[in-house]
Write a structure and sequence with these properties.
Order of helices and strands: EEHHHH
Strand content: under 5%
Helix content: over 70%
Shape: extended
Number of helices: 4
Radius of gyration: 19 Å
Distance between the termini: 35 Å
Largest sheet: 2 strands, antiparallel
Structural class: mainly alpha
Strand order of the largest sheet: 1-2
Length: 115
C-alpha cells in the first residue's frame, strides 16, 4: 500500500512510498523496460513462473496453451478494454523502438551518439 510522506517526497513519484520489495522490483522492471523495451516484460513474466511450472509446461505444452487461452478469454471478458490498451501500448513501444534503431543505423548513429 502506498503511504504519503510529506517529509520524504523525493523517494518515489508523487510523494508515494511503497514497501521496499515492491519498490525495488518495480524499479528493476522499469529499468529493464527502458533499456531493452517490451521484451523485458515478457522475460520478467517468464521469471515469475516457478521451475516446477516450467517443467509442466515443457511436459504438457497443449494443456498449457489451453489454460493460457482460457485465462486470456476470462481476462478479455473481465478486463478487455484495459488489456487491449496495454497490448496496444506495448506494440506501439516496440514499433517505435524499431523505428528508432532503423533511423540510427540510417544516419550512421551509434552508441557514441546517445544522450
Amino acid at each position: 500500500m502506498p503511504n504519503t510522506r510529506d517529509t520524504d517526497h523525493e523517494r518515489a513519484a508523487a510523494g508515494m512510498d511503497y514497501d521496499f520489495p515492491i519498490r525495488e522490483k518495480a524499479t528493476q522492471l522499469g529499468n529493464a523496460l527502458a533499456e531493452s523495451g517490451p521484451e523485458a516484460l515478457f522475460e520478467e513474466i517468464e521469471n515469475l513462473l516457478p521451475e516446477s511450472w516450467r517443467e509442466h509446461i515443457r511436459t504438457f505444452p497443449l494443456a498449457a496453451v489451453v489454460l493460457g487461452a482460457g485465462v486470456g478469454v476470462w481476462l478479455g471478458m473481465r478486463k478487455g478494454d484495459e488489456v487491449l490498451a496495454a497490448g496496444t501500448a506495448m506494440i506501439t513501444s516496440a514499433a517505435m523502438q524499431n523505428v528508432t534503431n532503423v533511423m540510427k543505423h540510417a544516419t550512421g548513429g551509434g552508441k557514441d551518439n546517445e544522450l
